[in-house]
Amino acid sequence: DTDSESEEGEQGSESEQLVIGFSQVGAESEWRTANTKSIQNAITDAGHELKFSDAQQKQENQIKAIRSFITQKVDAIVFSPVVETGFETVLQEAKDADIPVFLADRSVDVEDDSLWVTFLGSDFVEEGRKAGNWLVEELAEEEGPVNIVELQGTVGSAPAIDRKEGFEEIINQEDKFEIIKSQTGDFTRAKGKEVMEAFLKSDGENIDVLYAHNDDMAIGAIQAIEEFGLIPAEDITIIGVDAVKGAFEAMADGKMNVTIECNPLFGPQLVDLIEQHFEGESLDKRIAVEESMYTMDQAEELLPTREY
Ligand code: AHR
């Protein structure tokens, strides 16, 4: 349409085809594979070209991938940082090359916020608070002590730091709750199982609650609990985060109590934001993904409707 072209100029009229480099954390969980698919599909469905790199949960791989995107002169970089710190230099290199960076899912702990355009992701502290609030209500009648073991996510990652912080903020308001063991399970089933086995070996029957920073670790831990001879969700209350299908299946089987939703399907929203940026719109620095919480009694009914 010539009218709008003359009014808006070339840039504002049509969204151009972009080359987008996407540096993803890894493939550590059900959540992550759903997130990767959602972002990859949204980029290619919108007609853009995708360059994808899986960091296998290693920061050095991400730094290399971003440098390679810069050398290849991509138009934009989508970046889900494995850990929060240590990315200043490479982000500055992207800025110097005039390549806008969009943080997806996880944020960085970097003072200069001009190093990225916007951060689209969940509020992990709030997820931790939701887990804490659920537990406080669920065990309102318990006198205590309530002994909690915690399976943390990847050390130094935003979701591990924030989910711990939010959860502790709530449970520390009552003396009866105590985290007796806390260790990383790296967000994987295998590590979740292994660490839970160690927790059971040292504290066995004393464990009342498991708070796992994601469902995959909770599912691994459920196996460990069964093998140890205890009944998951009865002898040990089990809280996970993500709301992946595997958690709904475990809840429908009566083996897990609750999962706090962390929605990975924000690919289309992310691509909209990238296009808006290239159309000259200015974006908020922080954009949140909306999410909920699901308990065991809702699992059977909702399982068929879950998309990830
Ligand atoms: O950053 C989001 C977290 O990363 C998810 O909760 C977890 O499953 C994933 O590995």
From TrEMBL:
Q: Which residues form the Periplasmic binding protein domain?
A: 20-264
Keyword flag Signal: yes
Q: Does this UniProt record's set of keywords contain Transit peptide?
A: no
MF terms from GO for this chain are: carbohydrate binding
Listed under GO cellular component are: cell envelope
**Compartments where located:** Cell envelope
Q: PROSITE patterns given for it?
A: PROKAR_LIPOPROTEIN (PS51257)
- Transmembrane regions: none
One Pfam annotation reads Peripla_BP_4
Its keywords, alphabetically, are: Signal
Q: Which InterPro entries match?
A: Peripla_BP_I, SBP_2_dom
- What family does this belong to? Belongs to the bacterial solute-binding protein 2 family.
Q: What is this protein called?
A: Monosaccharide ABC transporter substrate-binding protein (CUT2 family)
- Species of origin: Saliterribacillus persicus
